[in-house]
Fold this sequence. Notes:
431 residues, alpha+beta, Beta-Lactamase, Helix Hairpins, Heat Shock Protein 90, 3 domains, 6-stranded antiparallel β-sheet, elongated, two-component regulatory system, phosphorelay sensor kinase activity, HisK_dim/P_dom, EC 2.7.13.3, transferase
Amino acid sequence: MATKLKxxxxxxxxxxxxxxFLRRVNAARRSEILLYNKRLSxxxxxxxxxxxxxxxxxxxxxxxxxxxxxxxxNAGVIFFRRGKKxxxxxxxxxxxxxxxxxxRPWRGIVGHILKSKKxxxxxxxxxxxxxxxxxxxxxxxxxxxxxxxxNRQVIGVIIVSSRDYDKYQKIDELVLKDLxxxxxxxxxxxxxxxxxxxRVRRVLASRMQFVADVxxxxxxxxxxxxxxxxxxxxxxxxxxxxxQEAMKDVILETKNVxxxxxxxxxxxxxxxxxxxxxxxQFELSxxxxxxxxxxxxxxxxxxxxxxxQNNPRIKFFGDREKIKEMMLNLAANAIKYNxxxxxxxxxxxxxxxxxxxxxxxxxxxxxKSDLPFIFDRFYRAQEIERYKKKDGSGIGLSVSxxxxxxxxxxxxxxxxxxxxxxxxxxLPFSR
Length: 431
């Protein structure tokens, strides 16, 4: 009878077992390090977003997505307290049954958190006295929630859930707490930003109303002055020749003030009524020559050289007086903030179906941080504030941009501190 031999497995040495154990520990440690780095990376992204992003919804969405991913959850919701209701402001991976949940006396895990002001970890919802389903779909068997606290009051809750039992550990709770702290910072920043924006809006509205009232009050005396000048013009034969020249200057300046006043009123009401411009055909080169003449008079005191590089002879359709006002505004700035014996350069060129009018100077320049705001009403750049010439209302560039846009054009600016500024007026043109 054949004997059945028993197959014996090779005996493992203690050293082999130790090596296997160390490998398993090393693999687990490596996984922990990767997860830790992933968490740090996300928290860093959230912190950067909080510092740079004004929209609270984007920050909350990033926080919730991170909470779900870092805890390997299936879904998550951020609730905010609104009086006697909880509103689901963000959800991820689940459809919330109702966007507004009535807060009954400490009902559910969320209600428990509102009362205790502490985080809550549940790894078996089948036997949890606080659990209440808040989403549709498959039942959650594990839930982890933390409060969002501002001024010792719970204003919201971040909650994540999993369909697995025994899903969450203490480390997951710590991660969620970190994210909750980021949410608190974001909400505080957003509220502070809203308060500041409202204050600025009120101050600006008050200032605009004052300017509007003054502008309308000035219209009447200016009309009287213009009427009297017209009467004097009719009897100019009785006025000495020297006085007639002075009267021409008065007429010109009165007309200039009237145009400025009208532009200011249009600027105040920008967007609330149609742009008031009077279109006519005129010779652009003649208009530029008029602006050059005025600019050279303004430049004499500082001995600034005014250069005309190009001045094409073309017929242009637009509001002659407003185009002139726009160029004079830019030229006056080029003189005011220029250096002694500096230069102002005019350059007009036709490029396809547009005309570009450039006015450049060799002045103090504008800081890069100020460039996005220089066309805002009443804005004054930091370099201008430090400059000895602080006169001006801060609306000249706003008026100029309004005129350009009223003609379907735009104004661009190129500048560098200490190297001068170039304004480029771009207007539509057809032959």
